[in-house]
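name: query_chain
kind: protein
chains: 1
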Amino acid sequence: MFIKKPQNKHLFLVALILIIGSIASCKVARFVYYNFADIGDHKKFPSRQLHNDGPKFVFHQTEMGKFPKNIKIYEQGEVPFDQYLEDNNTVAFMIIKNDTIQYEKYFKGYDQAAIVPSFSMAKSVLSILIGCAIDDGLIKSVEEPVTNYIPELKENGFDKVTLEHLLQMTSGLEFNEGYGNPFGEVATFYYGTNLRKATTNLKLKRAPGTAFEYVSGNPQILGLVLERALKTKTITAYLQEKLWQPLGMEYDASWSLDKKKNGLEKTFCCINARARDFAKIGRLYLNKGNWNGRQIVSESWVKQSTKIDTSRGSASYYQYQWWLPTKKGDFMAAGILGQYIYVNPAKNLIIVRLGKNKGKADWQGTFIKLASTY
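structure:
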């Protein structure tokens, strides 16, 4: 079909801009354009800023840190540790023992001040905020049905879905976590511009409390619960109040939104920060929610969040938005491209790994192996 070009060049340009704009606003078009989540995604979405204008907490440093010069890899034998990290697309790696940085290196052009998106590590941060909201009396308990905060979900059968079901990923949510599907729910949540509507449209596929299934819809529902519990305060403002300032974060950060005006935080992902500040999240839980004498979140919440619990359909390796690598009390936050905060309380150890992707490394196994050397 031949379309005659308008004689008025200005009208033609306006029409062209409108067409491009309408395409750009389409979720599928954005999915195709951006293709897949990557380490530069903090530049793609609108966000709310996090600040700490108060004192900064800085880990001690040592020139003679205890860390492996080499690491044994099953397929390759023993290789230099730095090479192992760089070959597997790491951009930041930290090992912190007894509040002292034993190892801190950056790769691929990144440095200490480089921003990296958290991806699903944000789920663990959200869990902390839920605990804070319970401590503050904004949320009564994890036994509350989600419909106490999101009554719109009653018509979708969520009356028996509790906040704990959402925290443990046992809600029975119908949610396509396939990142390669532009029409799936995860694409709607990541690239869409109306998270509140998308969240209240969710449905169930099984009875809650019967099986574990890791899907990002659960923490996004929790995000909407938290937003409504906070009422006039944004989730980012609450994060700044409860964590960013009290923990003495060294850098400003941000939390990505679904849209610029009156946007909702993508609470299943997308806190954009630096390695050193991610490490402070680990330090908080290493110290059972206490920060230099101040209880930021209750010790009982930290214990409940990171204990092995297989009751009511919960998995032995996952609790309140935290992964449990072994049965020895260690736990970690994890993101899709290989972003990790690993905590081993028995060794008083924190490891942070950030990367462009996971590479070919078994990072969980690497952390466990490193912890065994201390």
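note: The chain is about 30% helix and 15% strand.
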